Amino acid sequence: MTFVKNLIKHLFPHKIITHRMSDLNNQLLEQNGEKNDIHLSIEKENKSRQFCCLTIEELITLFEYCPVIHRTLYESISPNKTVKAYVDFEYLVDKNLDIQNHYIAPISCLKILYYFLNGPDDTITSVETYTENILKQFLVLEASTDEKISYHFIHAKPSVLFENTSILGIFIKAIVHFLLLSITQHKCSMFNINLSKEECSSTSNLMHHLAPSLNTLRKNCTRYPSSFCNPSTIINTDRNSANSMDVNAINKLNLSATDIQIFLNFVENVITSEPSHRGYVHSCVRGTLNKNLLFFNIAGNYRYCPKKKGHHRRNTVAIMINTKNYTYCIRCKDIECNNAILSWKKIN
């Protein structure tokens, strides 16, 4: 991101750019910098970062002059300032090959965060309403690749602010400890563990005792602990249960619709055809004006752009299906690409 660094130097010649956050803070103290300035980190091509400090007006100016492809800035959170809840969620795909649906974990994480930040809500009567409420509060950013499932969850419209990052850390640790403790209370024919109070006293102890049963829990015990879920919003992901609900419903992937089922396999073949650019279907929605159109929103590493005739590095794409004409096209979502004219192809 040398471009951004050079642009900052051009627009604001006197701005300090450092290699370490501590150096920036020290220099700002010497210059009596404004307390309300925004601390930013600039990600470079080699994944290292540099730091600077801008006012909101300067940040807006930088935004206006900076091309979309170079807008890779991150707000650096000061350890002594109030913060929103934020979580970096990730796991390696090759270490979790038995997981067929990679949405379950991030969705569960979001639901848990929402619950603990808001408390029970008896007015919620459906999974759709619950999910809608979550997405009104949280900014969800995806940075997944073929090797890693990665999301950033930011409580963008917070109901709770934390005094500093240390307090936020204590809050997250308390949630993890509570959830692990809830798991130990689960009893079934496949899992039955009894621990003393001392063994449950710390998160590390609980992880140590639960680790040997991890595969059993993941494959056979998939109900959410009733100790913290609102009964009206519990999703039972046990596929052997008559009342189970597929987690895809949360992602607007309504597999009960026959036409979606028909074309899902075709779309998945397209987005997994290149080993180095494999994607997955994030959601599917039907056209509001033209009901014959299906929009499959693609996530992961499949970012093929028909205009570029190659894959972008960061943008996402959608595969549009015309169920009446049996045709499809790939729509690149990069705003610099011209999507006014779409190239439709026949589905073989």
Annotation keywords:
single chain, five-stranded antiparallel beta sheet, 9 helices, 3 domains, alpha+beta, 348 residues
How do the helices and strands line up, and which of them pair or pack?
Elements: H1 2-11, H2 21-30, E1 38-43, E2 49-54, H3 56-65, E3 73-75, E4 86-92, H4 104-118, H5 127-137, E5 138-142, E6 148-155, H6 165-184, H7 203-210, H8 214-220, H9 258-271, E7 279-286, E8 293-300, E9 304-305, E10 310-311, E11 317-322, E12 327-332, E13 345-346
Antiparallel strand pairs: 1-2, 1-3, 4-6, 5-6, 7-8, 8-11, 9-10, 11-12, 12-13
Can you offer a commentary on this structure?
The chain is built from 9 helices and 13 strands. It has helices at about 1-10, 20-30, 55-65, 105-120, 125-135, 165-185, 205-210, 215-220, 260-270, and strands at about 40-45, 50-55, 75, 85-90, 140, 150-155, 280-285, 295-300, 305, 310, 315-320, 325-330, 345. Mean pLDDT is about 75; it is low at about 225-255. It has 3 domains: about 1-75, no CATH class; about 85-250, no CATH class; about 250-345, no CATH class.
